[in-house]
Give the backbone structure.
Amino acid sequence: MTELVKESSDRLLRLPEVRQRVGLGKTMIYELIADGRFPKPYKITPAAARWSEREIEFWIDSVKAGSDPSA
């Protein structure tokens, strides 16, 4: 018998939700992005950027585990 694996959807998050989830401010998030240590947002229009929920969750899990998520 095979087990069904239910994958979570990959929502696109706006900056306020990303800030709330990671506990960092906008400036720190963009500094980490510039250093290659935080997931880059996806530009969906010239004026709108969104982050992958899965990538943010992976980053949070990596920080909790004490590893460098950018490695």
